[in-house]
Amino acid sequence: MIRLFDDKGKSLCNFTIKVHFVSQVFIVTISDSLRYVNFSIHHGEDCEDDTTIYQIRVADIDKIHWGKFDDRCIYEPNVSEKRVDRYLSTLVRKQLNDAPSKTVYRFSRPGMFVIEGKPVFCTGTEVIHPKDLDPNVTFEFDPAIQKMDVDATLSENEAASKFVELLSLSPDPACIVTAYKLGFLMRMSYTKIGKSPKSCIYLYGRSGTQKTTFSSFLTQTYERNGGIKSPMRLNASISSVVSILLENSNDVVVIDDLCPSDSKRVQSQQEETLIEIARYIGDGVTPTRMKGNKISQQITNPV
Fold first, then answer.
1. Which of 99-103, 125-129, 277-281, 294-298 has the highest mean pLDDT?
2. Torsion sign across C-alpha atoms 48, 54, 58, 60
3. 247 Cβ contact list (under 8 Å, min separation 6)
4. How far from chain centre, in Å, is Cα 1?
5. Is 150 inside any structural domain?
6. Cα–Cα distance between 215 and 182 in angstroms, integer?
7. CA-CA distance, 219 to 234, in Å (whole number)?
8. Which pTM does this prediction carry?
9. What average pLDDT does the chain have?
10. What are the E-state strand segments in 225-292?
């Protein structure tokens, strides 16, 4: 059993902190990075130590209550826990310089990206990359990331052949919608060269010609255990449409029944909404609204 003492020989607690490595985590979608320390809690040779590796930001080392990670951690009752935590934080910082370092890229959505100057493709569960990418680079995925459903038993040629058959059902709109989706998947690559893709597709035709089903199938390239999601029906105000687009700014949005009514008045309103959507996609500026006595306007970077 470990008994940790300070520099004056005063007993502090029954555990210590072992730093395993320091990771520089690059948040791929926002071109930012954070430095993390990866550590474990040790109670001594006589205890069966938990091999769990915990992770905290290096910037938060001095704010951590170290005992919260393991129920077996016990502080000396006659010593302030804050004092013990400060001492443990100092021990952790002393280990940082000698700890091995790892480079990690964290993804929050699927698509094509540029990592270490190399094009890579994230499916949500793995990253497809060139063989000459630095082998020391590792990848992480946000828990809520969308995942592409990949059938490992299907060859690339078979998958391509079946997709071409799907496109042939309605060649012109299929190619346009697919190109739009591919532009989204490669958005970060375009953004890297200063050409972020912005586009809006309007499908029209007789009722019952499968416009909704077709566009939903082509744009929803992620796991479909629950089937294809029904697209959002547009029967509300311009502000509601803008809210929908703001909430889905990193994905392709399919909005159904843009002009479903025979009423000239309703059609006019919906056409105005379509124009507003096109404007928003083009410049990323939402319509001006009054919030109390002030003008409210949000500028974003829509897909």
1. 99-103
2. negative
3. none
4. 42
5. no
6. 13
7. 18
8. 0.58
9. 79
10. 232-233, 255-256, 289-291
